[in-house]
Write a structure and sequence with these properties.
Blueprint: E1 14-20, E2 23-30, H1 36-47, E3 52-60, E4 65-73
Antiparallel strand pairs: 1-2, 1-3, 3-4
């Protein structure tokens, strides 16, 4: 997440979105997150499998800040039985 510290409280209302190629892959809007990593983990899981570049946009409505994080996922090999 770089050197910037984003303070979170469990009572903060968080909006999160994963966007790739102009398409929204996942969204969330909720309270109760302890860290940015918790939000990123949930968004990546909700986005499912994709290949390429995407942006994770996290907005803390309560404190008034927003951060956009680049995400890259590579294709994985399929295992043959």
């Amino acid at each position: 997440m770089g050197n910037k510290v984003y303070n979170l409280s469990a009572s903060d209302f968080i909006f999160g979105t994963v966007v790739a190629g102009g398409c929204t892959l996942a969204t969330l809007a909720s309270y109760g997150y302890a860290t940015i990593e918790d939000i990123v983990r949930e968004l990546r899981q909700a986005a499912g499998r994709f290949v390429g570049l995407a942006s994770i946009i996290i907005r803390n409505r309560t404190q008034g800040w927003q951060v956009e994080l680049p995400v890259a996922r590579a294709a994985t090999r399929l295992r043959r039985a």
